Amino acid sequence: MTQAAADxxxxxxxxxxxxxxxxxxxxxxxxxxxxxxxxxxMSRVAVSxxxxxxxxxxxxxxxxxxxxxxxxxxxxxxxxRRWTVQxxxxxxxxxxxxxxxxLPRFLDLCFREKLITVAHELLHISPSxxxxxxxxxxxxxxxxxxxxxxxxHADRLAQQWLAQSxxxxxxxxxxxxxxxxxxxxxxxxxxxxxxxxxxxxx
Length: 202
What we know:
By secondary structure, the chain is α/β, with parallel strands linked by helices.
């Protein structure tokens, strides 16, 4: 492993580490290299982070928010009313999903768990890439039964990606925890997007 990969620099300016830019590149490379993710266009997935109050294990590490309803519909019925989802744009382009990582919690996972988490969230994106989630039959439509089975599948996909030898400069920062990145760059920053709201449809 090169020193740049080991300390996660990978061309990052000394004024800080742009986490959402770096993790977005990892997601984009997974989408390009792993067959099951090739329907994903990361230019329409807004990668964001949220700050957790306490450094502790447990709780959310990442989450995917779909910006459309079932089947990619722009409107849906909830509690007898018609709703739409607040639009999210990045650089003037409308997004279909918001992918949030919770810091420092996500960065304090071990390397393999970080990759599983990334693959887990990408796996939730609908094969139609229409702004909806991947839906399974049955009551547990998001994970198709046991979440442990879903995570095991995500692990296999993450290992498929790693087996293709992506450049270490791309993912080297994932070997480091939050405090190590912070000590190297002074601060960890990135894009932050407020949770999209459900709005009554006219």
